[in-house]
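Possible regression after last week's pipeline update?

I re-ran a chain I had predicted before the update to compare outputs. Posting the input and the new output here so someone can diff against the archived version. Not blocking, just want to make sure nothing changed silently.
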Amino acid sequence: MDATTEATSVVREVEIDASPETVWEFLVDPDKAVRWMGERAAFDPRPGGAWEIDVVPGNRAAGEFVELDPPHRLVYTFGWASTRSEENVVPLGSSTVEIDLIPDGSGTTLRFTHRDLPSAKSVESHTQGWEHYLGRLAIVATGGDPGRDPWLDGPPM
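New output (post-update):
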Protein backbone atom coordinates (compact mmCIF):
# COMPACT_ATOMS: atom_id res chain seq x y z
CA MET A 1 0.00 0.00 0.00
CA ASP A 2 1.46 3.37 -0.90
CA ALA A 3 1.89 6.23 1.57
CA THR A 4 -1.00 8.24 0.13
CA THR A 5 -3.42 5.35 0.55
CA GLU A 6 -2.20 4.64 4.08
CA ALA A 7 -2.66 8.29 5.07
CA THR A 8 -6.30 8.35 3.98
CA SER A 9 -7.47 4.92 5.17
CA VAL A 10 -8.47 3.12 8.33
CA VAL A 11 -7.52 -0.57 8.19
CA ARG A 12 -8.41 -3.03 10.95
CA GLU A 13 -8.67 -6.77 11.48
CA VAL A 14 -10.94 -8.18 14.17
CA GLU A 15 -11.35 -11.79 15.30
CA ILE A 16 -14.99 -12.59 16.10
CA ASP A 17 -16.11 -15.83 17.73
CA ALA A 18 -19.13 -16.20 15.44
CA SER A 19 -19.73 -17.56 11.95
CA PRO A 20 -19.49 -15.28 8.90
CA GLU A 21 -23.25 -15.79 8.43
CA THR A 22 -23.95 -14.44 11.92
CA VAL A 23 -21.59 -11.47 11.53
CA TRP A 24 -23.08 -10.72 8.10
CA GLU A 25 -26.57 -10.27 9.58
CA PHE A 26 -25.24 -7.61 11.97
CA LEU A 27 -23.90 -5.70 8.95
CA VAL A 28 -26.99 -5.75 6.72
CA ASP A 29 -30.01 -6.03 9.05
CA PRO A 30 -30.82 -2.55 10.42
CA ASP A 31 -32.45 -3.92 13.58
CA LYS A 32 -29.29 -5.90 14.38
CA ALA A 33 -26.94 -3.11 13.29
CA VAL A 34 -28.26 -0.66 15.89
CA ARG A 35 -27.36 -3.13 18.63
CA TRP A 36 -23.69 -2.24 18.03
CA MET A 37 -23.77 1.16 16.28
CA GLY A 38 -26.22 4.01 16.16
CA GLU A 39 -29.73 4.62 17.32
CA ARG A 40 -31.60 4.28 14.01
CA ALA A 41 -30.76 2.59 10.72
CA ALA A 42 -32.40 2.08 7.34
CA PHE A 43 -30.84 -0.29 4.78
CA ASP A 44 -31.74 -1.43 1.27
CA PRO A 45 -29.06 -4.14 1.04
CA ARG A 46 -28.61 -4.57 -2.71
CA PRO A 47 -26.16 -3.01 -5.17
CA GLY A 48 -27.23 0.61 -5.58
CA GLY A 49 -29.45 0.43 -2.49
CA ALA A 50 -29.27 3.25 0.03
CA TRP A 51 -28.29 2.99 3.68
CA GLU A 52 -28.19 5.46 6.54
CA ILE A 53 -27.44 5.32 10.25
CA ASP A 54 -28.04 7.95 12.91
CA VAL A 55 -24.76 7.12 14.64
CA VAL A 56 -25.07 9.61 17.50
CA PRO A 57 -27.36 12.64 17.88
CA GLY A 58 -26.45 15.09 15.11
CA ASN A 59 -24.28 12.63 13.14
CA ARG A 60 -25.96 10.73 10.30
CA ALA A 61 -23.81 8.52 8.06
CA ALA A 62 -25.18 7.50 4.67
CA GLY A 63 -24.24 6.00 1.34
CA GLU A 64 -24.98 3.29 -1.21
CA PHE A 65 -24.28 -0.41 -1.20
CA VAL A 66 -21.81 -1.24 -3.97
CA GLU A 67 -21.09 -4.96 -3.57
CA LEU A 68 -22.80 -7.66 -1.52
CA ASP A 69 -21.45 -11.21 -1.56
CA PRO A 70 -23.15 -12.83 1.45
CA PRO A 71 -21.64 -13.77 3.82
CA HIS A 72 -18.16 -12.93 2.53
CA ARG A 73 -17.83 -9.35 1.33
CA LEU A 74 -19.64 -6.04 1.76
CA VAL A 75 -18.67 -2.76 0.07
CA TYR A 76 -20.49 0.55 0.42
CA THR A 77 -19.88 4.24 -0.06
CA PHE A 78 -19.70 6.33 3.09
CA GLY A 79 -20.17 9.99 3.96
CA TRP A 80 -21.80 12.22 6.55
CA ALA A 81 -25.26 13.53 5.70
CA SER A 82 -24.95 15.60 8.89
CA THR A 83 -22.24 15.95 11.52
CA ARG A 84 -21.47 17.99 14.63
CA SER A 85 -17.70 17.55 14.36
CA GLU A 86 -15.27 19.27 12.01
CA GLU A 87 -13.11 16.11 12.05
CA ASN A 88 -16.02 14.11 10.66
CA VAL A 89 -16.51 16.07 7.45
CA VAL A 90 -16.61 13.40 4.75
CA PRO A 91 -18.81 14.32 1.78
CA LEU A 92 -21.49 11.81 0.81
CA GLY A 93 -20.16 9.17 -1.59
CA SER A 94 -16.54 10.30 -1.25
CA SER A 95 -15.17 7.36 0.76
CA THR A 96 -15.63 3.61 0.66
CA VAL A 97 -15.92 0.92 3.34
CA GLU A 98 -14.86 -2.63 2.44
CA ILE A 99 -15.54 -5.54 4.80
CA ASP A 100 -14.33 -9.07 4.18
CA LEU A 101 -15.52 -11.92 6.41
CA ILE A 102 -13.09 -14.83 6.37
CA PRO A 103 -14.01 -18.13 8.08
CA ASP A 104 -11.51 -19.01 10.80
CA GLY A 105 -12.38 -22.28 12.52
CA SER A 106 -15.72 -21.67 14.23
CA GLY A 107 -15.17 -17.92 14.07
CA THR A 108 -14.57 -15.13 11.59
CA THR A 109 -11.74 -12.79 10.76
CA LEU A 110 -13.26 -9.44 9.80
CA ARG A 111 -10.97 -7.40 7.55
CA PHE A 112 -12.08 -3.80 7.47
CA THR A 113 -10.91 -0.91 5.28
CA HIS A 114 -12.37 2.60 5.17
CA ARG A 115 -10.55 4.35 2.32
CA ASP A 116 -10.43 7.75 0.66
CA LEU A 117 -10.88 9.79 3.83
CA PRO A 118 -10.13 13.48 3.13
CA SER A 119 -7.49 14.31 5.76
CA ALA A 120 -5.24 13.05 8.55
CA LYS A 121 -7.72 14.53 11.09
CA SER A 122 -10.52 12.59 9.46
CA VAL A 123 -8.46 9.37 9.55
CA GLU A 124 -7.76 9.96 13.25
CA SER A 125 -11.42 10.60 14.05
CA HIS A 126 -12.69 7.64 12.03
CA THR A 127 -10.01 5.32 13.46
CA GLN A 128 -11.31 6.11 16.95
CA GLY A 129 -14.90 5.58 15.84
CA TRP A 130 -14.33 2.32 13.99
CA GLU A 131 -12.26 0.85 16.84
CA HIS A 132 -15.12 1.65 19.20
CA TYR A 133 -17.84 0.22 16.97
CA LEU A 134 -15.99 -2.85 15.68
CA GLY A 135 -15.32 -3.81 19.30
CA ARG A 136 -19.04 -3.55 20.01
CA LEU A 137 -19.79 -5.64 16.88
CA ALA A 138 -17.46 -8.39 18.13
CA ILE A 139 -19.39 -8.51 21.42
CA VAL A 140 -22.92 -8.53 19.98
CA ALA A 141 -22.13 -11.02 17.19
CA THR A 142 -21.05 -13.58 19.80
CA GLY A 143 -24.35 -13.21 21.66
CA GLY A 144 -23.06 -10.70 24.21
CA ASP A 145 -24.56 -7.39 25.21
CA PRO A 146 -22.28 -4.40 24.63
CA GLY A 147 -24.70 -2.26 26.66
CA ARG A 148 -25.97 1.14 25.71
CA ASP A 149 -23.46 2.95 23.55
CA PRO A 150 -21.97 5.64 25.82
CA TRP A 151 -21.37 7.82 22.75
CA LEU A 152 -25.13 8.29 22.35
CA ASP A 153 -24.89 10.58 25.37
CA GLY A 154 -21.91 12.49 24.00
CA PRO A 155 -19.15 11.10 21.81
CA PRO A 156 -15.56 11.99 22.61
CA MET A 157 -14.46 15.04 20.65
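Follow-up from reviewer: compared with the archived run. The chain has four helices and seven strands. Marking as no regression found.
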